[in-house]
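Changelog excerpt

This revision adds worked examples to the README so contributors can see how folded entries look when concatenated. The first example is reproduced verbatim below.
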Amino acid sequence: VSSAVKQALVKAMVSAGLIRSAADPKLSAMSAQQAAQALSASGVDAKKVADPAVSKAIELAKRVASGSHDAVRELAAEGEVQRQQEAHARVQAHMQEQRKALAGKSLSDATFNAQAKRAVLAALAKAGLIKRVTDPSAQKLTAEQAAAKLDAAGLDAKQIDDPELRAAVEVAAKLAKGDSDAAREVVAQHMAAKQEQERRKQHDVKQVEASLAGKDLSDAAFAGALKRAVLPAMIAAGLIKGPSDPKWKAMKAEDAAKQLAASALSVSMGQKSSSSSSSAAAVSGDASSGVMAVAVKHALALAKQISQGELGAARKLVAEAEVQQKQQQYHIFF
């Protein structure tokens, strides 16, 4: 709630000209209540602001600054409604773009059939009908077979809030019979949802990065977070056996990054040792579509910079790991 409230207040502060952007360094150490105090003291007239969300934030700023829980809840709710409306508008725009791009695509096209299958498998996973889209049994299905499985579940589209799942359920029967129009709609919805999810992820990463401004490896909590962020890649690279490995327990975050950077360089140059080839194959193979592979990819991409003492890279990796963990908790996968 505090994060949502602060975001609403920051947006209003930018609109009021109190700060240049949400990335303003002085915001990182500012609480939601302090942001409300600054906004309230600005004297901006809420009635003269066209944006309803900004107007509401200005209107409630004084009460939020004074510690009113009701005002905090109201502003958080208002911000969430605004966020959902904006996200819905973006998804609809993305869908229109996807529909144009997919015009003429047919399920007889193996590549498009695979796209449709991925979209339906994502819906099956959201519905709890399969555990993971990477399950071997699920991967054996065609788009039509996956749709038939979804249709057979008898889900009521009217009772489903998730737009991607609802869209897939609505056309599952047609897609199961080979209807390419239905397939194009499911793929368009899936791709639009992916674009919005990625946008949201990058936004969240930037927010977490901002909160980490000034953090360095002398901060035990930050160093611990960085070490946890490189752990999956250290295991994948064959440098340690797991979190209980004595070498890992004694290793500092910066030393882990140095070892990982050397390993990443070796892999990228195709000079893997025989001992690490199997784990590297695991990263590029079955795990490539999983959450763990994303964590490995992020760590490998930033390891060299971190090993060279670039704290910005360290903060980015920690932020990416934190956001990825939240996505995993809420099962937001594609």
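The second example, added in the same revision:
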Amino acid sequence: SKDEKGLAAIRKLKLRDVFVGGPLYNGMSAFNISGMDFSGAGASMKLDKMAFTSTKNAQNIVTSYEMPVGNFTLDVTDNKKPFGMLLSMGLEQMGLDSVKMSFGAKADYDVVNDKANVTQTFFRWEKMGELGFEMSLLNQMKWLETTSIGDLFDATQKSIDMSKPKPAPVKAAAPKKTAAKSTGKKGTKTAAKTKAAPTKAQANAEARSKDETKAFLDMMQLYKGVRVSHMRFEAKDLGDIDRASVREGFEKNLDAKKVRSNWAMDLTKEANKPTNSPFESKFLNALAKFIGLGGTMFVQFDNPEGLDIVDTINKKTDPNTLGIEFGVKQ
């Protein structure tokens, strides 16, 4: 049929036919929104600027883009009016009196070396926290030229199918017993210790987690050949962890420092589980330190030649062999 032929033709298209401007292409050349100021129902919202600009070379390839720093503010003007009341209640629970956010991003593309650099990308929530991200990728144009829309459709469908919940069989075997001997005046007594079998819900949850992880890793196989030469992710605490610990401490009649210490201990226990991959253990240990001490947690990697993106997210790979660093700085 015509529909089937049309779909077959679409599946054969390379991603390069869609991303006509190369790895940084997103369908836009520029936009600019500024001076937004809305108020009513007891609240006001202001956005000073949200803009995007891009540059292209003679071959129409996007060689850079920028989102200049923008600022967004949400304030309560009257907590007796409907929205103002709801907003005030929500902010009070978070220990805030207003919402103030800022954001920005930059990127450039080296056509000769087929290298895309995402830099100065951040999202900051005043008195809460800040997320920052940088990454350099190699071979993206080559990947766009060799990967078809059909490849993308198939990988996505496979990932969706694999991540669907599947009932995990729970064996109804008799509980294991081990003999524990104790000697007294009347001779030797034997006590049976029973090891509880996992519940059906626990078995299903574990099976679902494994399926979702495998689905993600299989999906990432689509990007094989794209190499990462630089990556840095930062999460900076600007007071949110403190406020959260104070709230929980108040509810449980505990000191806020004790609450943070308990959170960190729980994460450390989780990190030391023998079933964890080296990557998971290092990430959770860094997260535990970050929760306990605050500061800035970071994950960083540098390798001029780059590593295959599939290898960087492989659960079996030791981050030390790849040069991936996890840490917390004060």
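Reviewer comment on example two: The CA atoms of residues 301 and 324 lie 5 Å apart. The chain is about 35% helix and 35% strand.
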